[in-house]
Amino acid sequence: MRQLASPSEKASRDEFEGERWLKLATNAAINPLTLIAWSRNGEVVRDERLRALASALADEVGRVARGLGIRLPEDPVEAALRTASDTSPNCSSSVQDVAAGRRTELRYINGAVWEASLKLNFRASLNLFAYLAGEAASEWLKGRRSPCEG
User: Fold this and answer.
1) Tell me, what DSSP letter sits at residue 90?
2) Do residues 35 and 137 make contact, with C-beta atoms less than 8 angstroms apart?
3) CA angle 93, 97, 98 (to 5 degrees)
4) Where are the alpha helices (DSSP H) in 38-147?
5) CB-side exposure of 150: number of CA atoms within 13 Å?
6) What is the pLDDT of residues 3-54, one digit of tens each?
7) Could you tell me if 84 and 25 are in contact, meaning their C-beta atoms sit under 8 angstroms apart?
8) Angle CA(90)–CA(95)–CA(98) in degrees, nearest 5?
9) How many CB atoms lie within 10 A of CB 92?
10) Looking at the whole model, is its pTM more than 0.70?
């Protein structure tokens, strides 16, 4: 017979899921934009256009999470912008991947948000755009010198 999870185990799983989606919102906001702009993370908060796009991407991830019944531990927009600021001199994993000639993980980041949104009466169109634009940019930029070099 299957044993039911205790309330504390369920709360722990729910917290983990919320943290996971918060990290997804942060990566969905930073990775495609730093790739398209071919920049360090800090550019996402310095450039008002990138900041607006990052905010909209993170907000869209939050809307999908809430639609799926997932409670985020904090505002996804604030978390994404704070992370971009805190990691300002760094290059995102997407920039690092493309500079090294590897495929990005945008399919599993923004693409996953889009796919999750299809289960809802909502379409995460901005995340779909970020995924497709990021993948296109990765083809043009593949093997280029990383903005984090020199």
Assistant:
1) S
2) yes
3) 125
4) 43-46, 48-67, 76-86, 93-99, 110-117, 125-141
5) 2
6) 555 555 555 677 889 999 999 999 999 999 999 999 999 999 999 999 999 9
7) no
8) 150
9) 24
10) yes
Cβ atoms within 10 Å of 100's Cβ, excluding its own: 10
Which tokens go with 43? 């550019």
- Per-residue pLDDT reduced to its tens digit, 93-130: 999 999 999 999 999 999 999 999 999 989 999 999 99
Tally the residues of the chain: 150
Architecture (CATH level 2) of domain 11-141: Orthogonal Bundle (1.10)
Q: Residue 28: which of 62, 2, 5, 74 has the closest Cα?
A: 62
Q: Residue 137 has which token pair?
A: 């940019």
- Tokens coding 108: 């599993």
Farthest-apart Cα atoms in the chain, separation: 60
Give the active site residues: 23
Q: And the tokens for 93?
A: 């994993």
User: If you search the block for the tokens 């360090």, which residue do you land on?
Assistant: 40
- 50 to each of 3, 7, 65, 104, how far by Cα in Å? 48, 41, 22, 19
Cα 112-113-114 angle, rounded to 5 deg: 90
